[in-house]
Protein: M20 family metallopeptidase
Organism: Plastoroseomonas arctica
Amino acid sequence: MPSTDIGTSERILAELRGWVEHETPTTDARAVSALTARCAAELEAVGAAITLIPGRGGYGDNLVARTPGTGKPVLVAGHLDTVWDHGTLTSSMPFRIEGDKAHGPGIYDMKAGSFAAFHAVREILRQKTPTKRPITLLLTPDEEVGSPTSRALIEAEAQRSCAVLIPEPAGIGGSCVTARKGVGRFVMRINGRSAHAGGNWQDGRSAVVALAQRILAIHALTDLEAGTTTNCAPIWGGTRPNVIPPEAGCEIDFRVATLEAADKLIAQIMAMATDHDGITITIEGGLNRPPMVETPAALALYDQAKILAQTHGYNLPKQYRGGGSDGNFSAALGIPTLDGLGCTGAGAHAPFEHIIWADLAPRCATLCGLLETVEG
């Protein structure tokens, strides 16, 4: 059991509701920064050393909160942004409790987990609980779009730390995450030559046809056994049925199990760029999140978390997850990383997004116990 009293699930849910009802779409820097400022003020009031890094590029502020102590800290990192636009609360997803489920935009991914991290650190400081290591809490504004402005900060804080805990949502069966696929994105743009689709068909060069050919080739690169998947969406092109389309394009998502697989796939896709016979294809992008590979150090963290979970009345299986997180960055640097320590639930990015609210206290207690006892 953690030495810190983190309270009941009912108490945690009551405060978490305020976070959920403070809508924080990634694209609204002011809204995200306002929630960041609330966290900073509350943590500073109980003794945390606060650093606010101003947002840039249209994204919100980053918060770094440190507890007193010497030696390499334990880093716990979450994000405050969600995929949901303003007005979702009133139009389609009001905060509500239905039996064992609490619904609301971003509650599962990942306000419940980020709040658990904030709450655990705040209570450790408020109750003056001794910890084996100092703690660094990092809350970021842009994870849902690939962490473009926070990645360098995440990596810098990870390199200063002895271990990294990521309270992303729990997976199937309440599982945490010890490995993740790497994630990459491309944008493919194709320019052709317009012509009348009836009178001058032979003069045209269809960008849509060229795109269709490349989409099929990219789809064929999927290798499920090797853990490689590709997906082309959204796609665009053309103006009218009677005009040979001069422009087309698509975005490409890919997932890989290893850096070697990433290098191979990137080379295959980039080789599709061409300038030939009236068709010009340009491709931009690459690997956004390196694979998070399971290591003995990560498994040692998992074993510690599993024992803590049992003391709080639940089993904690582990999972290899196809989706990426900020844990990919720290794991790729060789820092022991344990992910998926947030609340149980389902529906990330979906209209039925929810948590199993009764699990808030036991899951938060496990996270808090790790923050108290990880020795590095």
Summary: The chain has ten helices and 17 strands.
